[in-house]
């Protein structure tokens, strides 16, 4: 079940490969995510050393959060992957033109997972072309719907 999608990623990038990663979260963050107080539109994945971190994901604290903690809505969160997946992602992301973007947050077996995409940036003309294709397919679908009536 999807919690939050990053629709902007599909507009700005060609997604070449996808990986599923766990996220190191604090208790108040899990409660806030279960209450849909999360946004990943501005988020991205950074490489520090030989680890990956989710940067810029905004998780709003619930008003019932504990008084002894100081919730930081946009703190950097560590992503959990197998070593061979980390090595593959870091190797490809350090090459020119590739970046790592979070695609969505979802539940899997009661845990919160982040889907990461290995992406290549789109140029402005690529964005226009994909928008044109989407509009054309939408027109074809509506014409087929009209035809069936």
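^ structure tokens above, recovered residues below v
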């Amino acid at each position: 079940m999807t919690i939050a999608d990053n629709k902007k990623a599909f507009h700005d990038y060609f997604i070449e490969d996808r990986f599923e990663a766990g996220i190191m979260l604090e208790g108040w963050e899990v409660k806030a995510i279960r209450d849909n107080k999360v946004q990943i539109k501005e988020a991205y994945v950074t490489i520090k050393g030989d680890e990956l971190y989710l940067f810029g994901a905004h998780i709003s604290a619930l008003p019932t959060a504990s008084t002894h903690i100081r919730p930081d809505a946009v703190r950097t969160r560590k992503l959990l992957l197998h070593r061979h997946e980390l090595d593959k992602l870091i190797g490809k992301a350090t090459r020119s033109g590739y970046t790592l973007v979070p695609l969505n947050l979802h539940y899997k077996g009661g845990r919160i997972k982040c889907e990461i995409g290995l992406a290549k940036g789109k140029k402005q003309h690529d964005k226009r072309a994909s928008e044109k294709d989407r509009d054309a397919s939408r027109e074809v679908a509506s014409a087929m719907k009209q035809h069936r009536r």
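The beta strands are 2-5, 13-23, 38-39, 44-48, 51-55, 58-59, 77-80, 98-108, 111-121.
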